[in-house]
Amino acid sequence: MYDGIKGFRDFYPGEMAARRATIDTIEDAAHRYGFREIGTPALERAEMWTDKSGDEIVEELYAFEDQGGRHVTLTPELTPTVARMVVAKQQELSKPIKWFSTRPFWRYEQVQQGRQREFYQTNVDIFGSSEPEADAEILAWAADALTDLGLTGDHFEFRISHRDILGGVLESYETDVDTTEAIRAVDKSGKISTAEYHDLLVEAGLSYDQAAEFDELIASGDLEDVESFADTERVTAAVENLQHVLGAAEDFGAREYCTISLETARGLDYYTGVVFECFDSTGEVSRSIFGGGRYDDLIESFGGQPTPAVGVAPGHATLALLCQRAGVWPEEEVTTDYYVLQVGDTRAEAARITRELRDRGHVVETDVAGRSFGAQLDYADSINAETVVIVGEQDLANDEVTIKDMESGDQLQTAVEEFPGDRERPTYEDFA
Amino acid sequence: MYDGIKGFRDFYPGEMAARRATIDTIEDAAHRYGFREIGTPALERAEMWTDKSGDEIVEELYAFEDQGGRHVTLTPELTPTVARMVVAKQQELSKPIKWFSTRPFWRYEQVQQGRQREFYQTNVDIFGSSEPEADAEILAWAADALTDLGLTGDHFEFRISHRDILGGVLESYETDVDTTEAIRAVDKSGKISTAEYHDLLVEAGLSYDQAAEFDELIASGDLEDVESFADTERVTAAVENLQHVLGAAEDFGAREYCTISLETARGLDYYTGVVFECFDSTGEVSRSIFGGGRYDDLIESFGGQPTPAVGVAPGHATLALLCQRAGVWPEEEVTTDYYVLQVGDTRAEAARITRELRDRGHVVETDVAGRSFGAQLDYADSINAETVVIVGEQDLANDEVTIKDMESGDQLQTAVEEFPGDRERPTYEDFA
Questions:
Q1: Rounded distance, CA B167 to CA A381, Å?
Q2: Which residues are the signal sequence here (chains A, B) (predicted)?
Q3: pLDDT digits over B96-109, tens only?
Q4: B133 and A95 in contact by Cβ < 8 A?
Q5: Are B308 and B128 in contact (CB under 8 A)?
């Protein structure tokens, strides 16, 4: 007997049904927005990450040498792959390019609740527009996807910022500040004490007075204060862009879910503009549910024409935690419209009924294991069959079948030639 | 600039739309039959193949050592994984277990038309029934999936046999025959000359007279002749089982697609009963499109209770070749219901119309890139928009919008408050 690998999950039908319903809902929203599905490979050249990504992601790669001597890796994220695809067909693709896909990725991480080594994301990106409407469309899609799942503004919020605000404010200090270190401190600020946070800011080059002032300024999230404090073109432009994105989000119906949160920095190096993270409003799921933002330099860094880009990638594990917490996670069970039960040698007639019901699009099972009446009924119950059609030798001798409603247990006989007849979805009620 | 890896394909939206339509059709058929979707990992312990599979598949593994020192492999097929999953929950799962999934697999093979190193399959299996109805249900599902794709009996056939017929006939010779070698010869017989075929049979232990006689007997596909020639319990039981499966297939509507073909041996070692392969009836696609069969011993070999099993796994690359050859492959293009075109500062009203149309479930794009009228119209054309709704400043001043039918080029104005109004899917025709 073999075991699965740690961090790699098997999904049995009940749980898979809930996941599939969730994925279908999210992808349906992407379709309606005109995002187009793409299909991407599980393996890429490892250099796509080792050449330029941060240490953390490189350390977590499932990388190896293939039989042809290529240095390859299971892809830990989608963005470099879509960048490669955009570059490969840059001339033919009409812009903006709006793509989505749902698939697994792999990182050798510590396994914990909501974090596996194999994890699923739906990536949604727009390439070829630097306009705030593109950022806002990403936010609007994410909001629609979440509300389609049954979530509301009571359950989630998008904490939104702009990559240049933190950097620009830090840059405006006359002292020599290590911006990267200071942003890292901001990123941690939610998980550590104020004193520890200020210590880190001081280590990055601020005085204690400056650290306290900076903390207060950023925590307030007041864009006008931030702009006048920094008084630099970079910060003014960032604040203006963020306000334009929020204005477009208002028109697109997503503004109500957005909270300005200047602590939001996002870990990945390639973000260049607006960044945002989705959080559980109640804080019960403490980590970020997912995040996204603008990454205008990535395509060029992959050898393409300069191409602005913005995207988001909900991860299905954390999304499931949020939905479960909010009480909107689908039932983890299979559903069945009909079970066609055979008693005696009635296979031909049972098969005829089964086929006619399947032709109408219903989920229909019938006996393929030669089981007894009781075993078939137990099985029908285990698959949550709504209606059982009993095709018995004796009934058939009278040209009848029995229709049993599984919830009430009620049953009755009806003429076999009338089942299913011209009814689209005949149930016990239709004959009672 | 980075390249993708040989044998790993990128699917851009047009081709992906055709693939998705195909996968949806196949999976919808699986749903109607009551097969339940499962989710399975990309990586498994390599021992699941190196312990017992044939040399060929082991040589083709993408195997490596992970950071935890585990000897892992990208999965080259699904069957060992589902066997592992059945064994892990053997007691709780109600039987028969009917599972399906669509996902990629990986083998380091020679790349050729219809064969990539990353390839997609829809696996459909029944565990827990040794009855011929289970084999027939697999055949019936495959037939329904293919006819749902628009294929007919003129396009495909299932060549069906039973694993024990060839072996049993060879065993019935008094001379000492190497059965494995002889079956391998039969497997090759379609691709080599008769003389070469007979030479291989002689190498396996038959005389030339016996080789000719054996060739004629097997090629005839006459089950009665085969049964009386061998005159052993093993062959009699195999013939009887095959006939029962065909009888059930008749009731299930799949018999018409089945041709008895005793040359059909299937490469994989784990088959134990009925085996079949789907072929292009015209022979234009010369290789097998996909195959399946019964593998009753596999679950036990994975440490589980003896559990009969039967399954099939259409591969999407060869299936695409068949559909293209038959002229039923979907158009490789994206479709769009509406493009909402903005002229001047009309974002709020355009957004209102866009949202209302999306709420009705339509695929709707609008400008997120600040493009000109002409550029937006070109873009709408490139995404095959059916209707363009032009929201212009001047029209809006008159409380109007313009509805343009993209096929005819016809357009007209209508009152903005009436669009979309209470119409589910308003087009030019509704206002003309």
A1: 42
A2: none
A3: 999 999 999 999 99
A4: no
A5: yes
Whether the Cβ atoms of residue A134 and residue A72 lie closer than 8 Å to each other: no
Give the C-alpha separation, A424 to A426, whole Å.
6
Q: A13-172+232-326 maps to which CATH number?
A: 3.30.930.10
Q: Which of B32, B368, B379 is opposite residue A131, by nearest beta carbon?
A: B368
B187 alpha-carbon distance from chain centroid: 23
Q: How far apart are CA A54 and CA A107, in angstroms?
A: 14
3-state secondary structure of A187: helix
Nearest to B96 among A6, A81, A369 (CB): A369
Dist. CA B374–CA B390, nearest whole Å? 12
**A2 vs B contacts (CB less than 8 Å):** 44-45, 47-48, 80, 84, 302-303
Q: How many residues does chain A have?
A: 432
Measured in residues, chain B has a length of 432
C-beta atoms surrounding A192 within 10 Å? 13
B contact residues 363-392, partner A, Cβ 8 Å cutoff: 363-365, 367-370, 378-379, 382-383
How are strands ordered across the β-sheet holding A36-37?
Answer: A36-37, A97-106, A118-127, A309-312, A290-294, A274-280, A156-162, A258-260
Chain B CA closest to residue A378? B94
Domain boundary assignment for chain A? 13-172+232-326, 336-431
Residue in chain A nearest B72 by alpha carbon = A5
Q: Are residues A2 and B252, on separate chains, in Cβ contact within 8 Å?
A: no
Considering CB atoms only, which of B99, B133, B358 is closest to A368? Answer: B133
B151-156, Cβ contacts within 8 angstroms, sequence gap of 24 or more: B151/B322, B151/B323, B151/B326, B151/B328, B153/B256, B153/B257, B153/B281, B154/B281, B155/B280, B155/B281, B155/B282, B155/B322, B155/B325, B155/B326, B155/B328, B156/B257, B156/B278, B156/B279, B156/B280, B156/B281, B156/B289, B156/B322
Cross-strand partners of B106: B118
The pLDDT tens digits along chain A (432 residues) read: 789 999 999 999 999 999 999 999 999 999 999 999 999 999 999 999 998 766 778 899 999 999 999 999 999 999 999 999 999 999 999 999 999 999 999 999 999 988 999 999 999 999 999 999 999 999 999 999 999 999 999 999 999 999 899 989 999 998 889 988 898 898 888 889 999 999 999 999 999 999 999 999 999 999 999 999 999 999 999 999 999 999 999 999 999 999 999 988 765 567 899 999 999 999 888 888 999 999 999 899 888 899 999 999 999 999 999 999 999 999 999 999 999 999 999 999 999 999 999 999 999 999 999 999 999 999 999 999 999 999 999 999 999 999 999 999 999 999 999 899 899 999 999 998
Cβ-based neighbour number of residue A176 at 10 Å? 7
Rg (CA), chain B: 28
Exposure string over A200-227, b if 16+ CB within 10 A, otherwise e: bbeebbbeeebbeebbebbeebebeebb
Ligand-binding annotation for A231, yes or no, is no
Residues 171-230 of A with CB under 8 A from B: none
Which residues of B348-407 form beta strands (DSSP E)?
364-366, 385-392, 400-405
Distance CA A46, CA B141 (A): 41
Give the residue carrying structure tokens 């209707």. B387
Q: Residue A113: what pLDDT?
A: 85
pLDDT band at B189 (very low <50, low <70, confident <90, very high): confident
What does the alpha-carbon distance between residue A395 and residue A416 come to, in Å, rounded to a whole number? 9
Gap from B322 CA to chain A (nearest CA, Å): 21
Q: How far apart are CA B87 and CA B182, in angstroms?
A: 34
Query: What dihedral do alpha carbons A68, A70, A74, A78 form, nearest 10°?
Result: -120
Q: Is A171 annotated as a binding residue?
A: no
